[in-house]
Amino acid sequence: MVRVREQSHLSEAGEVDLDRWLAQLPVTFDEQEQARLLEGLNLAQGAAERPGNDVPDWASESNTFTAGLDITQILAELHVGVDCLLAGLLYRAVREDRLSLEEVSERFGEEVGTMLLGVLRMAAISELKNPTESPVLGQAHGQKDNIRKMLISMVDDVRVALIKLAERTCAIRAVKNDSARRRPIAQEVFDVYAPLAHRLGIGHLKWELEDLSFRYIHRDAYRKIASLLDGKRMERDRFIQRVREELTRVLGNAGLEFEITGRAKHIYSIWRKMQRKGIGFSQVYDIRAVRILVPEIKDCYATLGLVHGLWRNIPNEFDDYIANPKENGYRSLHTAVIGPEGKILEVQIRTRQMHEEAELGVCAHWRYKGSDGESGMASTYEEKIAWLRQVLDWHEETGDTHGVAEQFSFDVAQDRVYVFTPEGDVVNLAQGATPLDFAYHVHTEVGHCCRGAKVNGSIVPLTYCLQTGERVEILTSKEGRPKRDWLQPGLGYLRTSRARAKVQHWFKAQAREENIDAGRHLLERDFKRMALTSLDYKRIAAKVQMSTVEDMYAAVGAGDLSSAQVLNAAQGLVEKISEPRLEIGRSGSRKVSGSRVHVRGVGNLLTHMAGCCKPLPGDTITGFITQGRGVSIHRSDCARLVHLEESSPARIIEVDWGESEQENYEVDVAIEAYDRQGLLRDITGLFANARINVLSINTSTNKQRHTATMRLRVEVPNLGALSRLLERINRLSNVVSASRLSE
């Protein structure tokens, strides 16, 4: 990890010593380059004394000149050229209007000015991450235009991205004591810049950006892991020293040239592994790790054989990233062994060149450009540029700025799958991508017209998760159009932000009347499935922040609002409930003990949910005073209640839901399906996975029609849980319908 602050630019008196600072940079300069840097240093130092404008994405007490020195220090460690160093040195002063772009371009050339302009445009990412902030120049179009130009700059000159990464690294270091700005800067770095550093292969910065942002966003988790690491530091250092001694003996006897170092395990990496695998700190075995650097690739495999001969390797814990590099170009051998004292040890083996690639990413391209055997690295560099161009194309096509950040964080953080087109071309997709994602990746119109897919020659559903090595063929219709179900997250048709954006863009272009009709049809279908026939649609529209019911329908039809959100709003109009006993309140109204059901105008009576309609929180309800059983609570559209109103209108009372703790409610569910082997097992498995209790099951089979009918009584906590369950059942093969029974 880069040190939080190296004070190498200060003299013994605490003043900035430019000659000393310049001499300690990890690069060499000729006389002309050194003269340009000194000129830039003097300009930056003088600019710090000029008036300027404070920017909210830096610590309030930081100085533009010392910040420029720190940015330049990081860029020098990435081995960039003098023009890039000058741009990094002067960026903060230009950003705060202490220097003008024209002045910089005139003194140091157009190349430096162009890089600075690109980095300034990248500052728009701050507005992108918080859509409630005022847009650039007070105009939404200006913000979108800035993001587009930012991406163009990154594509045309990767040094722009490197300067911004270095600047954000310094910014997050500087906010340690600035509580007001620490959290938003950390969130921006975590969401955008740490993934970008990973994508560009710059491990040198990635780990620090992740650890520092994690420290400020999840302070308690960070401190806990840090204390656990400190508590085991002496034991771990002693163990690593013994490992180094044994490895030195074995590798030395084999005549290999090598370098062995202990490898620090980063705190965020430990936490992420604990979260992903659901394990405790003691089960993260690769906290004890060493890295072995050797001259050539053949030495990597020779060293691997010696390590496995010295200690027993753990099955399924070997990764060959040399033969199969990671998507960001990372190459190394990883293995886990049972080392001295029976403790598990991770060993990484790589060449020195691979190590520089892992630390510097695309920056290593310039260092080895033109050397023999580096065509693969150049190819990796071009792939990174191609990825940036892909993001740019998506933004140009949809005009979606909010999704750019999601594309950065999602595409970078996830593993990838590699599938083939029918012509044999390889397509790189995010883990979990579906054939529909593949179709939209190929071309927007292919996605719109998609009606089916074949994987390795067999028909698969459009929700199928693609696997590496599969051959995908898309089946299209001549006049195809997207389906609104594709936008429902729970149905699993689309996994990537890019594909969803294209579908939403298509529906937004349709006529409002068509969207209203489609939205009404979608909601009526879902509400019917949930047996919700007595809802106040105006209240629901207000809950989802729509002025009218028609606006809500139009938003659902255009894909801006999902039917799941509307269902959640319907159930959210009232809170969950608990106990059924009635109590007298101070105002004279009566309410259920535990705030389950409020009942107006009655004494201390018991309540119970009517077995005929089984109301749930969210349903409109009415009470009926029974003889001996208190108040029976019915849904207002219950057929039994209609008969009771006609026969005994004086016993009908007003009731409504209250607030309380969670309680389960009995609901009847009807399932119609074409019979098949294992159908009942699959359905009950869904209930078990959802932790929903099944009280009774009644099944019947029509052998002539090969159909099966099921009636289940289950316990659910609320309307949302029931909706999710029915959605999963409807997605099972051979299931025709699954719905809540109203009677």
CATH-level-2 architecture of the largest domain? Orthogonal Bundle
* Number of DSSP strand runs: 23
Overall shape: globular
Q: Round the mean pLDDT to the nearest integer and report it.
A: 77
Report the end-to-end length measured between terminal Cα atoms: 65 Å
CATH superfamily of the largest domain: Hypothetical protein af1432
User: Residue share in helices?
Assistant: 40-55%
Which percent band covers the strand fraction? 15-25%
Summing up helix and strand content along with how strands pair, one would put the structural category as alpha+beta
Name of the level-1 CATH class of the largest domain: Mainly Alpha
In CATH, the topology of the largest domain is named Hypothetical protein af1432
Q: What count of helical segments does DSSP give? A: 29
pLDDT < 50 stretches = 1-8, 129-153, 365-381, 409-414, 574-595
The largest β sheet comes out as: 6 strands, mixed
| Domain module count | 6
Give me the Rg, rounded: 32 Å
Domain TGS: 415-476
GO cellular component, one term: plasma membrane
GO molecular function, one term: GTP diphosphokinase activity
Family: Belongs to the relA/spoT family.
